[in-house]
Each structure stands twice: as structure tokens, then as C-alpha cells.
């Protein structure tokens, strides 16, 4: 794309926003300070590297599609990630799951993993100048096949998973220490039942006790903990042990962050609406930016109304420093590197859109009881040349703009992904 044309368009946009009291340069600087956590699992359909043919199984998660080119090894995944990062403006983080360790061909069960299995990731992250986040993996394992882990009636199975999560928190703390930036360790478990259970209370009591044991540890290093609720999954349609209310109570009592996944609520329930309700209680929040479609909670994120609403709530509440944004989706039906970049760019675009809102003016209009004025200004913002600000932001960040980044994904597909068979 012609850079002069992008710059000219930006200058015009800057004037238009300035008329409303918005400093587009400042908004861009604020956007540049935000690090998204990019989920490693979009690159290989949540397979991981525990064995050469590892694939997502159980846990109420399903990945559909068999588009060619998925990463089959650690090196391929890193190569793909580096390409994705090169197309996303800004400095970001990588979110790993425990099954993505560097096990060097050794069978390593989940209750035996340690920071040593993630040393090569730490080294790679240093090289790439990115920070790491982490997740225990309580699915795709024989002891999770019944869709029950930390709330399982069998104490031995619970013990196995408690040990796994404890180890994962230690790994996360070590990553945070090594990279000098607190690692967010998020815990999501699949536990639930397909049909109604008479034992809701017993499952929840067991989960509560398992969690108490896990979070009684304080691993040395730099760690931030979060717990993620869900509404339902495949095989847990009737009952999910770790529901929103369950984890909210637990997180509050134990000083953890709640993780709100945008695909884990009733379809008309808004995660955006929850931000200000949680702020008086929680210093920090983790959001899984995702897109629910019917039964699935993990479609590729787009620049949709609900992502914009979320970002507007975060900026209006001046909560940007208190919210961690992590992407969470997996789609095996299309170019996986492209899927990463679409979701990351859409999330950043939505945040930029929010940062360009004249929130102060809106607040004044509202205080003056000018409901019409508020509504009209909000409507006006939707057709201001926000795309011109975004394009210039990409140019300044040194990443391809518009159709160029699409071509870059296609070129990578031809040169790299299509050669994997
Ligand atoms: C599942 C949760 C969870 C996972 C990842 C892979 O419903 O959203 O965050 O998607 O841990
Ligand atoms: Zn999630």
C-alpha cells in the first residue's frame, strides 16, 4: 500500500478526531503499551507435543476441520508463531499449555513435568523479546476421559491432577522470574456431567478442596493466578462444576483473578457488562477473547460488536492496566497462522476504536442529562475514519497494512505450510 496515501488519510483523520478533543497519537501510544497473550494452541489444533500424534481429546473441547499445514513439532510451531507475531503490531505475549513442553521424546506424564521442560520456550521467548503465560492441561489424558479431574469422586485421580496443577504453577512462576514479567497461570478444567446429577454439592465440595490444596502453595517466582468458569461443554451440558459463581467466590476468597471467557456465558449475557461489576472486588481480571457460535465457544475472534463493547467498557472504566487480554480460540478449517493474526488484529482494532472514544465529553453530556447528545455522539464515532488511524498505527509498528498482511499469510502458506505433509 502506498505509504504517503496512508499518512495523508491519517492526517485527515487526526484532524477530525481532534475536533472532538481526541488525540489520535496518544490513543496509538496507549494501544502500543498493551500486550495481548497469543494462545499457542491455535497453531496445532490443541494437540501439543506429549507424543508425535498427540491430538485434542475429551474435556468438552472440539476442534473441527483438517486444513493442511498445521505445526507438527515445536520448531514448526515456533516458526509459525514468529511469523504471526511479525504481522501483529506491538509487543505481545505467548500463552502456553502444559502439553506444549519440550519433552525431547521422553514420555513425561503430567504429574512429572517441571520448569526444565519449558527452558527452551523461555530461551526462545527471550530471543523473540516476548513474555510467557501458562496453563495447566486437564484434558487430552486417560485420567480426564470421564470429563472429571479435580472434582472426580476417586481421590487418586484428584491427587494426580492436584499434583499437575501445583507443578504448572511452579513452572509459570519460573517463567515469570526468568522473563522478568509475571506469568499469568490460568486454570480451566472440563469437569461436569452430561445428564443431571443429584450430587452437585459433592462435586463442588471436592473441587473446592482440591483448589484449596493447590493454591495453598506459593511458588517462588513471578506468578499471577486465575480461574476460568464455563457454562457448558460437550459432555457437560447439564452441569459444570466450575461455574461462574463457584469460581467468583473462590477467586475472591483466595485473592486470585477470575478469568472471563467471552464464549462461556449465555448468548445474551455480556462479558463487557461484568467488568465494572467485578472491579470493586478484583484488582485484576483475565479476559479470554473468544467468539461463541451456537454450541462452540472458541471461534476465531472478529471485530464484532461484543469485542468493541468489551473494550469500550475497559477504557470507560479506566481499567486497561487492570485487565489481561488473552486470545482463546481454535479453528482447524483454515490457515492457522492467518487465524491467529485475524483474531489478534481484530482485538487490537477494537481496543483502538475504544481508545478513540470521547469518553469525557460523553460523561459531561450524560451529567447534563443530554441523552440525545450522548446517543448522537456515540453514533457519530462509528463512522469516523478509525481505519485510517489503524492503518497508520500498523505502518508505524512496522507491520504490513491492509491487503499486504493477507498476502504475507498466503506467501507463508505457499512457502512453508504447504510443504508439510
Ligand atoms: C475451554 C477454555 C480454555 C481452553 C484453553 C485451551 O473452554 O476456554 O481456556 O480453551 O485452555
Ligand atoms: Zn478460555
Features:
alpha/beta, binds L-rhamnitol, 421 residues, eight-stranded parallel barrel, 14 helices, binds zinc ion, two-stranded antiparallel ribbon, 12 strands, 44% helix
Using the CA coordinates, give the radius of gyration: 22 Å
β-strand amount:
5-15%
Give the neighbour order of strands across the main sheet: 1-2-3-4-6-8-9-12
Which bin fits the share of residues in helices? 40-55%
Bound molecules: L-rhamnitol, zinc ion
Pick out the low-confidence regions: none
N-to-C SSE string, H for helix and E for strand: HHEHEHEHEEHEEHEHEEEHEHHHHH
Task: Report the strand count.
Answer: 12
Count of individual helical segments: 14
The whole-number mean of residue pLDDT values reads 97
Structural class, please? alpha/beta
Summarize the main sheet.
8 strands, parallel, barrel
Shape: globular
Kindly, what is the distance between the CA atoms of the first and last residues, rounded to a whole number of angstroms? 34 Å
Describe the structure.
The protein is 44% helix and 12% strand. With 421 residues, the protein is of the alpha/beta class. Strands 1-2-3-4-6-8-9-12 form an 8-stranded parallel beta barrel, surrounded by 5 helices. Strands 5-7 form a two-stranded antiparallel sheet. The two termini are 34 Å apart. L-rhamnitol (RNT) binds next to strand 11.
List the helices and strands and how they pair.
Elements: H1 3-19, H2 24-32, E1 36-39, H3 74-86, E2 93-97, H4 119-128, E3 131-135, H5 155-179, E4 183-187, E5 192-193, H6 200-216, E6 223-228, E7 239-240, H7 244-254, E8 257-261, H8 271-278, E9 285-289, E10 291-293, E11 296-299, H9 305-316, E12 323-327, H10 336-355, H11 359-367, H12 371-381, H13 386-397, H14 403-415
Parallel strand pairs: 1-2, 1-12, 2-3, 3-4, 4-6, 6-8, 8-9, 9-12
Antiparallel strand pairs: 5-7, 10-11
The chain binds L-rhamnitol and zinc ion (ZN).
Amino acid at each position: 500500500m502506498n505509504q504517503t496515501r496512508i499518512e495523508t488519510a491519517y492526517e485527515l483523520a487526526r484532524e477530525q478526531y481532534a475536533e472532538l478533543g481526541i488525540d489520535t497519537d496518544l490513543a496509538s501510544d496507549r494501544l502500543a503499551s498493551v500486550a495481548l497473550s497469543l494462545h499457542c494452541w491455535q497453531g496445532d489444533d490443541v494437540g501439543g507435543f506429549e507424543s508425535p500424534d498427540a491430538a485434542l481429546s475429551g474435556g468438552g473441547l472440539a476442534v473441527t476441520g483438517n486444513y493442511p499445514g498445521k505445526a507438527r513439532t515445536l520448531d514448526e510451531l515456533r516458526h509459525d508463531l514468529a511469523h504471526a507475531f511479525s504481522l501483529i503490531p506491538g509487543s505481545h505475549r505467548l500463552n502456553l499449555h502444559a502439553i506444549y513442553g519440550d519433552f525431547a521424546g521422553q514420555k513425561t506424564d503430567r504429574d512429572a513435568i517441571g520448569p526444565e521442560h519449558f527452558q527452551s520456550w523461555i530461551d526462545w521467548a527471550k530471543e523473540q523479546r516476548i513474555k510467557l503465560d501458562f496453563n495447566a492441561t486437564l484434558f487430552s489424558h486417560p485420567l480426564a476421559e470421564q470429563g472429571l479431574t479435580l472434582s472426580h469422586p476417586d481421590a487418586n485421580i484428584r491427587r494426580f491432577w492436584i499434583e499437575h496443577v501445583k507443578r504448572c504453577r511452579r513452572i509459570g512462576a519460573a517463567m515469570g522470574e526468568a522473563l522478568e514479567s509475571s506469568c499469568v497461570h490460568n486454570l480451566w478444567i472440563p469437569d461436569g456431567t452430561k445428564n443431571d446429577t443429584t450430587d452437585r454439592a459433592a462435586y463442588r465440595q471436592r473441587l473446592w478442596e482440591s483448589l484449596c490444596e493447590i493454591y495453598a502453595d506459593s511458588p517462588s517466582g513471578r506468578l499471577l493466578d486465575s480461574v476460568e468458569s464455563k457454562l457448558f461443554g460437550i459432555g457437560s451440558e447439564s452441569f459444570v462444576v466450575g461455574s461462574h459463581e463457584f469460581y467468583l467466590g473462590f477467586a475472591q476468597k483466595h485473592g486470585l483473578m477470575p478469568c472471563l471467557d467471552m464464549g462461556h456465558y449465555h448468548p445474551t449475557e455480556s462479558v463487557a457488562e461484568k467488568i465494572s461489576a467485578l472491579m470493586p472486588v478484583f484488582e485484576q481480571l483475565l479476559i479470554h477473547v473468544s467468539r461463541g457460535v451456537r454450541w462452540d465457544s472458541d471461534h476465531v475472534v472478529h471485530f464484532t460488536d461484543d469485542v468493541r463493547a468489551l473494550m469500550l467498557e475497559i477504557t470507560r472504566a479506566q481499567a486497561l492496566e487492570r485487565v489481561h487480554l488473552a486470545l482463546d480460540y481454535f479453528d482447524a478449517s483454515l490457515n492457522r497462522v492467518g487465524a491467529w493474526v485475524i483474531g489478534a488484529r481484530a482485538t487490537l482494532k477494537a481496543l483502538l476504536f475504544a481508545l478513540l472514544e470521547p469518553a469525557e465529553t460523553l460523561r459531561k453530556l450524560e451529567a447534563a442529562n443530554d441523552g440525545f447528545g450522548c446517543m448522537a455522539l456515540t453514533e457519530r464515532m462509528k463512522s469516523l475514519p478509525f481505519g485510517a488511524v489503524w492503518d497508520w498505527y500498523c505502518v508505524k509498528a512496522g507491520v504490513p497494512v491492509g491487503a499486504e498482511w493477507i498476502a504475507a499469510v498466503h506467501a507463508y502458506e505457499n512457502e512453508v505450510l504447504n510443504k508439510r505433509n
